[in-house]
Amino acid sequence: MEHDLKSVARRFRLRGTPLDIAPITAGHIHDTYLLSAGSKGQVTKYVLQRINQTVFKDPVSVMANIRRVTEHIHTKTAKVDPQAAARQLVVIPTKEGEGFYWDAAGNFWRVYNFIENAVTYDTLQAAGPAREAARMFGWFQEMLLDVPGPPLHETIPGFHNTPRRFEVFQQVLQADAANRAKDAKSEIDFVFEHSAICGVLADLVAQGAIPVRIAHNDAKINNVMLDARTGKGVCVIDLDTVMPGLSVHDFGDLVRTAACPAAEDERDLSKVVLDPALFDALAQGFAAGTYRFLTPAERRHLVFGAKHITFEQLIRFLTDYLAGDVYYKVHRAGHNLDRSRTQRKLVQSMIEQEETLDKLVAQAFRYTSGHTT
After folding, report:
1. Domain map of the chain by residue range?
2. How far apart are CA 219 and CA 194, in angstroms?
3. Which residues pair with 103 in a beta bridge?
4. Is the pTM of this model over 0.85?
5. Are 293 and 145 in contact (CB under 8 A)?
6. 125 - beta bridge partners?
7. Which tens digit of pLDDT belongs to each residue from 155-195?
8. Is residue 305 a contact partner of residue 294, using CB atoms and an 8 Å limit?
9. Helices (H), the chain
10. Residue 109 backbone dihedrals phi, psi, to 5 degrees
11. 5-58+91-115 has which fold?
């Protein structure tokens, strides 16, 4: 479906008239565009997005959360570092002051500022960027400890309810509507064999052993921006799933996407292995950002959180493959099955190294605490 993108863009408070709008192909969920607007020879860049309402069924609540979070971070940052505040994510309002535009056809649009001279990575090869990315996600969590007002909206109910995702997986498998189960037998068997992973964190939360906080809930490595020149953290992005959640999930998703140098859809599974050196850098960075507030129970379950979230992602990719690719964007036949296989291999690698990884986390927090108190 074609959209009059310039007409949509003119609904927002831009610095000038929309000049050029080009698609950005990265990302699994939304339709994203680089928007340029000009006035008196000055060009300002923005990010224009059409929200996927199949995934986010309550986009108004999504944007309410994002505005609360971004405004809170900007206000706090401006008090100590105005330059850093100027590079935080900002929701550009419509001319009526709303954080979004809902067009007559039912499409839901938003605009962000474009963060200049900042980069993201889909995979990492070096410890420095890994450490800084992890520190930024820890910083992000600490910044949101004191958000005033009621709890944030749950933008995707049960997003990290892994027991429920396992139930849905079984239902989709039984239906096998796309007749694909025969091609994923090994992955299906692996999910059933390790299904006990699903309920551990939910049980700890129910017991009050691990607190629910404001979490990113999709803390992939490409959702943090680093300065293109210095490599220092700039801001955390892709805030659609910021809502009540667990710190261990955020660390876990970071490990899932950053401690393995292979791509999320790598077909050569010999490349899919957890790199302990990259993991160590992530643990050091996350400890630097969270040591002031993480509880001992949270610290002890960080490695399990990585295994848990990777296993959950395996279930999600595999469920979507069996259902006929209805959730994630795919770019080739069997794409979600490829993604499932990388997650399976990564879970196996984590299980094999779990004791070593636990020691690295404990060491990171000891070192950080000892050098900052």
Report:
1. 5-58+91-115, 127-372
2. 23
3. none
4. yes
5. yes
6. none
7. 988 899 999 999 999 999 999 999 999 999 999 999 999 99
8. no
9. 5-9, 59-80, 82-85, 127-143, 162-175, 185-193, 200-206, 247-258, 276-290, 296-300, 302-323, 335-372
10. -120, 150
11. Phosphorylase Kinase; domain 1 (3.30.200)
